[in-house]
Amino acid sequence: MAGRGKGGKGLGKGGVKRHRKIYHGSAFVGITKPAIRRLARRGGVKRNSSLIYAETLGALQIFLQDVVRDSVTYTEYAQRKTVTGTDVVTALKRSGRKLYGFGA
Fold first, then answer.
1. Distance between CA atoms of residues 53 and 4, nearest Å
2. 8, 15, 32, 82 from 12: Cα distances, Å
3. Which candidate in 7, 16, 24, 71 could, as Cys together with 87 as Cys, close a disulfide (CB 3.0–4.6 Å)?
4. Measured between alpha carbons, how far is residue 38 from residues 12, 32, 45, 99 in Å?
5. All structural domains of the chain with their residue ranges
């Protein structure tokens, strides 16, 4: 660690990131059955049918595609490259869902 002073490792000199999930193809592979079950529990569902997981994944995919498409549209219109929380809140508001606490 010569040449870095008393600061220790320094910035940007970290090691290898281990145990990172790698998604092949769709990002919706990462939404697992237990994650869908937890969402259902939060909504008050006591017991799930086995057919519900594929249906829920399809509905979630359509919903997220719409929100992301609108958010990116707002970002491009503002000539930015970073999607902000305000863009997402505005996209949700456009679809009829209000979200409080994230600006706009």
1. 52
2. 12, 9, 32, 22
3. 71
4. 36, 10, 9, 21
5. 27-94
Residue 99 pLDDT level (bands cut at 50, 70, 90): confident
Confidence of residue 10 (pLDDT cuts 50, 70, 90): low
Pick the CATH number of 27-94 from 3.40.50.1980, 1.10.20.10, 1.10.10.10, 3.60.70.12: 1.10.20.10
Q: What is the pTM of this model?
A: 0.66
Query: Does residue 88 contact residue 104 with C-beta atoms inside 8 Å?
Result: no
CA 50 to chain centre: 25
Inform me whether the pLDDT recorded for 81 exceeds 60.
yes
Note whether 84 and 75 are within 8 A (CB). yes
